[in-house]
Amino acid sequence: MKSLINIYCLFVPILLAASCQESNEGNPDVDLPEQENTYINPVFSPVLADPTVVKSNGYFYAYGTEDNWGNEGGHKLVPIIRSKNLVNWEFVRNAFQVKPNWKNAGGIWAPDVTQVGEEYYMYYSYSTWGDPDAGIGLAIASGPEGPFIDQGKLFLSSEIGVENSIDPFYIEDDGKKFLFWGSFHGIYAIELSADGKSVEGEKVHIGHTHLEAAYVYKKDGAYFFFGSEGSCCEGANSTYQVRVGKSNNLLGPYLDKGGNSIADGNHGEIILRSNSVNYGFAGPGHNAEIMVDDEGTEWLLYHAIPKNNPRLDNGTNRRPLMLDKLIWRDGYPTIQGQEPSVTSQKAPAFND
Fold it and tell me: Where is the site Important for catalytic activity, responsible for pKa modulation of the active site Glu and correct orientation of both the proton donor and substrate (predicted)?
């Protein structure tokens, strides 16, 4: 059963194939798609902020920041949703049955989920707005639907020497495990222990203080750093946008097309920003892992805020899950028009 479908679907005068899509919150004047091989943003509502995605057992599983969906779903302690095609999603459960308690207060933000061996590791932020000592923890589950069992903290900001230590991203490279993290006090990376449960070695400075939401994608021997800058959570006035740098090494330096390093205060190449039209989406950012369909097309999942309906009834920012095709120009990835799509698009191709 499709979960949390926006009530706009009840008033669409077209009988949709397969199932009712999410409402076209970004542009209420554009008809929703009538065919199964098309979609329109957002692909899941009302909220899936700071998404991370993993594929397992024929499903894509997406996880988001702890949020209160108000009368559209209530409190979600890291929601899990799943889909077979990246377009039609259903709510599964909360990732945690019991909230981690190694901090006195805060929310579980920006989870990053990866299959490690036969288990599923979730690195997560534990923080609140203005938290002087945010931290990053680890939880582990035997399957992608959880429940995730907390393993405690990896580190606090004060312990690692980086203020606002949030937004973890895990990656394996050349048989080693690494964690990227950080926000408006810089992006850093550090090697993890063989079991991924502790840090080893010295941290490496990756990005300047304007970036957060680190993600690295390896393609054809090159590494592409994705980061978000601007304000994430100011409703229709949010300025979040996604930028990219390129490197020949996992630990950088990551450069823009002009050869300027993002570690030195340069912003990288912009690939996604708010719609220029007033009915689109504001603050697109904090992208998930890139997914590849059966035709080899790469897809970017991220959150954004519909300008015409930016908040839930309880004041929470409405940050639904978005989907757009990744394209490549001059050796760098981008999104068509560098803005979220607001009209019907060809859907990802999956044969299953």
Answer: 167
